[in-house]
Predict the 3D structure of the following.
Amino acid sequence: MGLMQRLSTIFKAKASKALDRAEDPRETLDYSYERQLEMLQKVKRGVADVATSRKRVELQAQQLQQSQSKLDQQAKQALAAGREDLAREALTRKAAIGQQLASLQAQHAQLEQEEQKLVLASQRLQAKVDAFRTRKETIKATYTAAEAQTRIGEAVAGISEEMGDVGLAIERAENKALEMQSRAGAIDELLASGALDDLTATSDPIQAELDRVTAENSVETELARLKSEVAGQVGPGGGDAGSLGSGAGDAEVETEGEST
Amino acid sequence: MIVRILGEGQFDVPDSDLDRLNAIDDEVVAAVEAGDEAAFRDALGRLLAAVREHATPHALETLDPSDLVLPGPDTTLAEVRDILGEEGLIPS
């Protein structure tokens, strides 16, 4: 049996289980309708849950962006103070945060997609539930229990498939939201501890090396850019950055990535 | 015939497409049985494209069961196995 046929059989088997449960097939109608209303509630809750996760990811992205600008500022201060080593450290951290931010943004897009899918799924289910309610009343009013059986079977089979589909969509979206939450928790902790640069550690050694090289290159580029900026600020008569000593008291640059 | 794509809803597809769809479906099954994720993604992608070629959305306010059900485009091999349950592709 092919996959398409097999999946269709699985959904039909679920429907016939629902039908076997009741003595009077017309009871199945009410039972099924209750389940449908529950499922509608569930999918709406699912949409809300995924939206909550999405918002949390957005908030974290903002925090990471703030950390980036702070580190950028610190790097400038460090350079102005002639502490290239500190500037390098700040820029290295900034690069690590940039990588985190990129992966966070990719996951944010995924969450947004799941949310959209759930919204559409709930609209489809709502249309089917409305159709079922109308059909239910017709069947109850018009047919005897014996006559009703076939028609009930058809109605229940049709809605049951939609319910199965929506159920899978909810499960999927909630798994994604859960993944995201545990990741978000980890980033929160790292933001708090200032150890974000540890996050570049990855289980794939080649990727780790690539990441390192990328980060290194971006640090060098940024360093060059800042150097020219700082040189510009000092002006023609200002001498070299190392002797920029007037504000030497605040040369002590905070590089511990304290959370913001 | 009515074809459901999981996560997307039901579509009307001409019966004349069935043989063509079944041929690609066989490739999907082979990939699932071999546990070959890349081959599975590829075959599923082609199967979905073949379905969509002549598909029109099935009316929402109906209660018609589908003749065929397909996983959605970003479904993984593991997720399909989950839906199939313990019996896998062998009919009970």
Confidence is low (pLDDT under 50) at residues 195-204, 238-260 of chain A.
